[in-house]
Amino acid sequence: MKTNAKEFDEIARTIFWPLYPVVAGQMLARCGRSAGACLDIGCGGGYLGLELARRSLFHLRMLDQSSQMLEIAQANLTASGLSGRGEVILAGVEAMPLPEASIDLAISRGSIFFWPDLATAFKEIWRVLAPGGLAQVGGGFGSAAIREAIGDKMRARNGGDDKWRAMVRRNLGPETRQKFTEALDEAGVAGAEIIDSEEEGLWVVLRKPA
Q1: Full residue range of the structural domain in which residue 59 is found
Q2: CATH number of the domain where residue 27 is located
Q3: pTM of the entire structure?
């Protein structure tokens, strides 16, 4: 997928910013821990991972296949004062250069809709999860109210065109959930949970037994 890194980052930084604290809080609550190794897959500018790191003691690994996005993520990591417990990794989700059982919390918001091979991605996430680890990957905005507020701003940005809301409905709709279910079955990942909520969004949650 080709993206304009600067435009993508500007939208993430200015329009999407209200969702990061809420989603990070939901992820930490679901994880039930506040330290360890956290992997932000398809991190973009790193805003979700950095918000999570600010609220915890996790060491953050930000992974993206775009070198341009990682330059932005690295700059944000440095500016946040968290560079002592964070790093960037250039790679895709299907082949992550990480040891087996090395990640306590794997997160990803928004990038899953562009993964070309969901089953391979789920297998790879499962491989890097440590015993007792959790992964939450998918899409959501923290609440329906935040999603609608962002939708209003995106419509204004697009000159009154509501194409962004149509994309979100498609991404978070039943066809996508079915794709997730089929890919999880193909991957053979045991105990996966799908969260499909008007408030939280559509997420795949993987919990590795301790």
Answers
A1: 5-207
A2: 3.40.50.150
A3: 0.96
